[in-house]
Structures are given as structure tokens and as C-alpha cells.
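B., you asked whether I could sanity-check this one before it goes into the benchmark set. Here's the sequence:
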Amino acid sequence: MVKKKNLKQWIWLGVSTLILGLIIYNLRHNPEWAHFDWGRLWASLVSARPGLLLLALVGVYGTYVFRALRWQFLMHPIKKGSLWVLIVGQLLGFSSIYLVGRPGEFVRPAYIARKESLPITSMVAVWLMERILDTICLVVLFTLVLYFAPVEMSAAGERVLSVMHEAGNAMLAITVVMVAGLVLYRLKTQTLMDWVARKVRFLPQKVQQHVNHFLHSFAEGLQVVRSMPDFAGSVVLSVVLWCTNATVFWLTLKSLGGALGSFVWLGAALVLFCASLGLVVQFPGIGGGYQVGIVLALTEIFGVGADVSTGAAILLWLMMSVPVLAVSLGLLVHEGLSFKRLEAITEEEEMEQSAAVKDAD
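And here's what the prediction gave me:
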């Protein structure tokens, strides 16, 4: 099992490296990069306004409180979770992502399940629901940005924006269908599960088991839809969370002054969207696609110099990762844990989940 897991990680790392390499290759052949100035990059970083960065730091920590509160609403139909456990779980989980990449995603549900004495499947279901809410909020935010376009775009940015307008319409339509599908699945869970079970009978038995187990877990996570106060609370917190994320980007970009000193909030929201797309390509400890997404947004859409854009990407990455990692190290000492132990807990919970799939057969 360990070898299979390692193989998947190496495959994912190889694919991510290829994608990131192609992006960087195209960037490097952009005429803008011929005038890259390392001195201006350094000057933009050291001259950042500390007052705005302090406000952004408050926003960064606030997002983890909002995430914990949202998780509390999502798991309320199952159990009223401890807010402290949920906050710690968010911090440790995202720290694991920063350190080990996407495999760290499973730390949050595994840690919370262990602390709250709940089956891992129920917390994975909550995690899935959280991801869906995040995706919907990002798409809606992106669509709003497209219809209320940021000012002072480059000519190339206007062309890119016109193409993105068409993509935004399609994404908004997909989001509406996704929400309708979630509600329908929650209302007709058993009927739809029986229908899917009939359609996947041609697959191997083991695959069928995993499909059925996933559908059961997903249905459990959608229990929040049954309670309108819990559902409304999770939606409101999702909106607050992503508005706060955009505000953190806005404050950090404005702190650099110069070409970014007059950056508008909607522009920062668009940069956040591009950075979030870049998260698909994530390298342990150094990020990767996240920073590239920021650089692409600033250079290609807003016409900001490559050196200033690179400085902004570095500063945003530091603002989003270092404060969380610093607090997480203290929490690990307090909890008597280590990141290796967190990984072990995750693997133990994964094994329990696999055992549950076999027992359910």
C-alpha cells in the first residue's frame, strides 16, 4: 500500500513539474522578462508598508477561524464539534499542505475525526462539502469580477478579459447546475445511489465498493442541506471567507506601492482566482503554481512589470504560509505531535476507511 501511494505521489509530482515547466518556459520567452530587474524586485519587497501587512496578517488568521466555524456548521447534523479542535485542525491541515503538497489535504479530516471520536468517512464527507462550497464561491467571485472589470488594465489584459467573460458565463451556468444537482442528490439520495449502482455493475467489484462508499459518505456530508440554519451559516461563512481572502491579497498588493499602490479590490480578487487555479500544481515547501498564477495575472492582465509581479507573488506566498506554519509549530508542541505523527494518523485513518469499505460490502 505504501509503495502504491509513493508511486502516485511521484506520478503527480512528475505531471506537476511538466505543467509548471511549460508555464515558466512560456513566461521566460515573454519580452517583458528581458527587462527583469532583480534590484527593483528587492526594492519592492523591502519597501512594503508594514501597517497594511499587519492588517493582512489579521485577515490571514481570521480566515482559519471562519473555516473552523464553517466546519462546525457542516458537521453539526453529525455532532457539535469543539471550535478549538476545529481551529487547530485547520491550521495543522493547511500547514501540512504547504509542507508536503496536496497529500496533506487529508490531515484535516483525519485529525478532526480522531479528536472528535468520529468515523473518518463522515469527516471526509464534510471536507468534500467544504471543497464544493469553496469552488462555488470562487466561481461566483470570478464571475462578479468579470462583470465589474477592474480599471487600468493593459491592452492585452482587455483581450484576455473578453475571453474570460465567455468562460465566466459557462462557469456560472455550471455552478447553477452543480448547486441544483447537490440539492437533488440530497432529496433523492437513495434513488440516485441505486441508479448509479446499476450503471457501474460492469466495473470490478472493488471499484464498485469504492463508488458506493463515496456516495454514502457524500450523502452524509450533505446532511447540512437538511438544516436550513446550518446550511445558511456555512454559505454565509464561505462568502465571508473568500471576501477576506481577497482583502488579504488587496492589502498585500497595495503595501508594495508603486504600480500596485492603487490596485482595486476587484483586481485583487481576480489575482486570487488565478492563484487558486495555480494551486492544482503544488510543490512541497515551495508552492509552485500558486506563485505562477499570481505572476501571470499581474503581468498578462494588468501589465505590471515582471520584477514587481514576482516580488508580489513571493510576498503573498510568505503572507499566506509563514504565519500559519509559525503558529502550527507551537500547536504541535502543545499537542505533543509532529508532522510525521500527523502523517501517520492520516495513514491510520485511511486504512480504517479502506477496512470500512470492505466491511460494507
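One thing to flag: The chain has one domain: 36-360. Otherwise nothing jumped out at me.
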